[in-house]
Amino acid sequence: MCGIVGYAGRRRAAPLIIDGLRRLEYRGYDSFGVATLGSHVEVYKRCGRIPASIPDTRSMKGTLGIGHTRWATHGAPSDVNAHPHTDCTGRIAVVHNGIIENYASLRKKLERRGHSFRSETDTEVIAHLIEENYAGDLVKAVQESVKSLDGSYALLAIAEGDRRIVAARNASPLVLGLGDGETLAASDMTPLLEYTERVVFPEDGDIISITPQGAEILNQGKPVERPVELVNWCVDDVKKGGFEHYMLKEIFEQPRVFYETARAADPAPLVDLLRVTPALTIVACGTSYHAGLIARYLLEECAGIPVRVDHASEFRYSIPPVRNPVLAVTQSGETADTLWAVRAARSRNCPTVALTNVVGSSVTRLADAAIYTRAGPEVGVAATKSFIAQLAVFMALADRLGGGSLAGSIATAHLSIGDLLQQDVEEAVAVCGRARSIFFVGRGPFYPVALEGALKMKEISYIHAEGYAAGELKHGPFALLTPETPVVAICLPGPTYRVMISNIKEIKARGAQVIGIGLAGDGELADVVDVFLTIPGEDPWVHILTASVLLQLLAYHTARSLKTDIDRPRNLAKSVTVE
Ligand code: GLU
User: Does residue 45 line the site of ligand 1, with CB under 6 A?
Assistant: First the structure.
């Protein structure tokens, strides 16, 4: 996890890098640091969030430097464990995203050879290895050093006596930005957007020499060319635009995101595969997994295609005997568990397709083909618009395979999502804000909608929340129902409506308060629940989207009432690039 930024150019590197790290803070935020190279290497690093101003970095004048915002894997968050890490002499500095799996044995060997270590991190071994291999040519030293490393890394190194940044990548994300007389490197594109739209995605095994004039890439010791791509995100996409939080801004972007993705995404690679082999396995984590569960209902009901959905983290270790296409869903394209699941699927000769929001991300290079959502950069740690964008692709896919049966839903969904955003959730927020635990229940496709609603609630409000298939609650969890354990029940017209009403009555009979989510004007539901939240429109497929957005708003406003750090919830990071 974590974010790294490197800069080589004509401007002062430290403030520019710190600004870039702020854009990456969603990836990790327990400590941060920067190192610049002027006449010598200077390092500033601290435990905690990046403050609004850091007077101590004003003396750092170098125009070349590296920075890091950390999500600790080895060693607690502390000043000394923060990156950059230096060698024994302090003339070499390194930032690293990933995990060096053999660091313990490397550390022992280096200590035996006289190196003294300051931190508890796995990363520090890299600085000492480079120290041993450095004789004025940093590229050679990094090339030699990474030969000893097992594990994942995107790393940036600087050294006195060599005026460039040297980067190396293996299974952790890295993107280069080619500006005019300045070159950047970062964990994702967001820190680059202000300086250039020309980006390059290095591949595993690449060693990159970065100077203001550009980047030279070596692989296996030989120069290689990687294509220069143009990004279509702009810097305004990563600003808050007047909203109190990124999460709220991103929730409000969803009508546009749905509209654009449903029309622009091209599901053809998967359509072609499913026409030949009509069965699909979806692998994903977290919110993307919930989108996959919803896709199962869409594809099975609209297109008659059987779908199984696996947690990517489980799939790798118990690969089912599937031969059908495998779809990997990952917003960032860098989720380590999902990447491993794709490798596992490939090892079984399954055709693989990626569904992601990030052009050029690792999953797109690993899978046989890629489908892109058009959510734009998502900064809030809790996924919102990327989820709706994934559902837009699944609806477009089901529509194509199902002979156009979803065309009407796709045409109007953005309008219903827009209407839903006006919904007042205050009364429900008051109930949730007092709760120690909340159940979210639904049936059919509203079961995964409930799972996602519970995930949003727990991620940002820190209230324990569980999503359940409504019919399962009586098989155990009823024991937990009390007046302090509200139940959010999604109850919309359709085959499960009557049984949901019965379930709600059973819940009420056990003393729990029910927040019902139903169709505007549904008097029967309104009469049985304690708080009634309505969603607009008559289209059952669109209800999946609007109910999801309503639960995002409920989580957001509950968290806001509890004054939690909504955009950066504790212990989390957005892009989970470790297993
Ligand atoms: N493994 C390194 C550490 O714990 C890097 C973690 C990260 O990617 O932030 O410092």
Answer: no
**What is the CA(71)–ligand 1 centre distance, in A?**
6
Would you put residue 71 in left (φ > 0), alpha (ψ -120 to 50) or beta? Answer: beta
pLDDT, one tens digit per residue, over 466-489 is 999 999 999 999 999 999 999 999
CATH fold of the domain at 3-236:
Glutamine Phosphoribosylpyrophosphate, subunit 1, domain 1 (3.60.20)
Question: Which candidate, 404, 458, 415, places its Cα nearest to that of 545?
Answer: 415
CB distance 173 to ligand 1 below 6 Å: no
14 contacts 62 by C-beta, under 8 angstroms: yes
Q: Confirm if 556 and 381 have CB atoms less than 8 A apart.
A: no
**Comparing 3-236 with 240-418, is the CATH topology the same?**
no
Judged against a pLDDT cut of 70, whether residue 1 lies above it is answered with no
501 vs 520: CA distance, rounded Å: 16
Q: How far is the CA of 477 from the centre of ligand 1 (A)?
A: 38
* CATH code, residues 423-579: 3.40.50.10490
- Verify whether residue 222 is a known catalytic residue: no
Question: What contacts 24+ positions apart, CB below 8 Å, involve 233-241?
Answer: 233/189, 233/190, 233/193, 233/376, 233/377, 234/193, 235/193, 235/194, 237/193, 237/376, 237/377, 238/23, 238/190, 238/193, 238/377, 238/379
**254: Cβ below 6 Å to ligand 1?**
no
| Active site (annotated) includes residue 574 | yes
Note the pLDDT of residue 242.
78
Q: Hey, what CATH topology would domain 240-418 get? A: Rossmann fold (3.40.50)
Domain boundaries, the chain: 3-236, 240-418, 423-579
Enter the pTM of the model. Answer: 0.80
CB of 71 closer than 6 A to ligand 1?
yes
Question: How far is the centre of ligand 1, averaged over its atoms, from the C-alpha of 186 (Å)?
Answer: 15
Cβ contact 284:291 at 8 Å: yes
Residue where the block lists tokens 């085959």: 495
Q: Quick: pLDDT tens for 65-113.
A: 999 999 899 999 999 999 999 999 999 999 999 999 999 999 999 999 9
Percent of the chain with pLDDT strictly greater than 90: 88
